[in-house]
Amino acid sequence: MLLLLPINFASAQIYSSSANASVNMIKPLSIVSISNRVNFGEIILTGSAFSRNLSPSSGAIFRIEGHPNRNVIISYSHTNLSNSVWVSQNGGTIGSLVYTPDVVHTGSNSSYTNPISVRSGSSYQLVNSNGIGILYLWIGGRLDISANQPVGDYEGTINITVSY
């Protein structure tokens, strides 16, 4: 009797597809100080306003490492230098100076050869050196000294920021 009943099976429809999976492993970014002093030396006040420049070749040096051929954004800003610590120990008038950085890079060359100017907030490519992206930064700058600049030892900090 069961053989006489019509059998109605629903046809199942099955579809499949695929996707490729991938990931891009990027070397972490770092910045290491090789020489972290920007020292303008001793300046004799003359009673007239003047500027003192320090070549980046005589200033601080940093080595940036990261993913080869990857672009990094380098940022820095003007910095105020103050003689407040010196005044607190020796007396006198607190003064400030604006330090305007002059930053260049020499690619993967650790010698000061063919420097390229670095503008804050701009992007620069890390040079591939045996699978490591490298960029050497050199930092000098300018001080504008007023005619009545107070005496003392002026100090401040310049911050360099790098990011992918």
Radius of gyration: 30 Å
Give the termini separation: 77 Å
Can you write the helix and strand succession as a string? Answer: EEEEEHEEEEEE
Main sheet: strands, sense, barrel: 8 strands, antiparallel
Mean pLDDT: 93
Total number of β-strand segments?
Answer: 11
Low-confidence stretches: none
Pairing-aware structural class of the strands and helices? mainly beta
Share of helical residues? under 10%
Q: What count of helical segments does DSSP give? A: 1
Shape, principal axes of CA atoms: elongated
CATH architecture: Sandwich
- The CATH topology turns out to be Immunoglobulin-like
CATH C-level class is: Mainly Beta
- Strand percent estimate: 35-45%
**Overall structural domain count:** 1
SSE topology sketch:
Elements (H helix, E strand, L loop, with lengths): L29 E6 L14 E5 L5 E7 L4 E5 L3 E4 L1 H7 L5 E10 L10 E2 L4 E4 L1 E3 L2 E14 L15 E3 L1
Antiparallel strand pairs: 1-3, 2-10, 3-10, 4-8, 4-11, 5-6, 6-7, 6-10, 9-10
List key phrases describing it.
164 residues; mainly beta; Immunoglobulin-like; 3-stranded antiparallel beta sheet; 1 helix; 4% helix; 38% strand; elongated
